[in-house]
Amino acid sequence: MNVRFWGVRGSLPTPVDNKALEEKLVQVVLRAREARLDDVDQVRRFVAGLPLALRGTYGGHTSCVQVTSGQDEVILDAGSGLYRLGQWWEGQEPAQRPQVHHIFLSHLHWDHTLGLPLFAPLGYAGHRVVVYGAHPGFEGHLQAQHAPPSFPVPLTALKGECAFRTVAPGRPVRVGTLRVDCMELPHPGRSFAYRVSDGHASLVYATDAEYGDLSPEAVGRYVDFFQGADVLVVDAQYDLHESLGAKRDWGHSSALTGARLALAANVRWLVLFHHDPSSTDEAIARMEAQVQAYLDAQGASSRCRAVAAYEGLEIAL
């Protein structure tokens, strides 16, 4: 199984602004003054050794994660990152392009659906996109969202076919060798987590959730769903103070909440996801370091490694 992240931001697409880019350049130049860079190869090695927060960016596209196992593919959420996935798809040799795509929506908030009509395969006749959702009437909501006056071309007018399927907890879906299970998460308007497994490895995608009470009794059913996953993707939009203070009841969690759940569920990889639009690359890097320090402090009982999601991140399982 292979996992690739195409969109990792929450709420709305957030490109890096010019001021942030300028500050990155200043910091890189200061570091370069201390290094002896006599040729292009040395420069490339120097740049490759810089922290991601300096040499690049975690990314500004909203939620979209691709899971593949052999020829089978599942896409989790249709945020603006889905557009980037579609661009990548168009760059493949035609014979290597999948003709059917399966997209599972966590919920219907716009940052998780806005990429759907811009997904390249829907522009090609003979190609099919199947969208799965657990919200009653979700097809009608998407059809209305992606039609005039909100969008110039209705989904039904695109060259490719867009079909819809309803999912529910306790009713797994098969996509080739991949099994997809879902469960409801605590979030305004309801959100759903997905567990994708191929019989050898598993990923749990659990974005957009605010757990509140973290007692074992309160979170036990979530821990059971996450249990033993190779990868757990969690909502890490706020820091701990925000999640307990000014932004309490806003429907999102902190990275440390995700870490506690990951430890309880004995997962291998904790992926911090759904970054706040206001979070800088430097702030996201600090969050990752803080969470890893927390996990390390748990001693030998913790096998979990934390990584802040970034566009292009790939995890091979």
Written description of the protein model:
The chain folds into two domains: 2-15 and 57-316, Ribonuclease Z/Hydroxyacylglutathione hydrolase-like (Metallo-beta-lactamase, Chain A, 4-Layer Sandwich), CATH 3.60.15.10; 18-54, no CATH class. The strands form two sheets. The protein has a seven-stranded mixed beta sheet. Helix 6 crosses helix 8 (255-265) and helix 8 packs parallel to helix 9. 28% of the residues lie in helices and 23% in strands. A hairpin with a 2-residue loop joins strand 7 and strand 8. The model has no long low-confidence stretch (mean pLDDT 93). The longest helix has 16 residues, at 281-296. The protein contains nine helices and 14 strands. The chain is globular and about 60 Å long. By secondary structure, the chain is of the alpha/beta class. It has helices spanning 18-32, 40-48, 52-55, 81-90, 138-145, 216-226, 240-244, 255-265, 281-296, and strands at 2-7, 64-69, 72-76, 100-104, 128-133, 161-166, 173-175, 178-185, 191-197, 202-206, 231-235, 269-273, 305-308, 314-316.
Number of separate strands: 14
Tell me the strand order in the biggest sheet: 6-5-4-3-2-1-14
Query: How many domains, as an integer?
Result: 2
| Helix segment tally | 9
Order of helices and strands: EHHHEEHEEHEEEEEHEHHEHEE
Rg over C-alpha atoms, rounded to the nearest angstrom: 20 Å
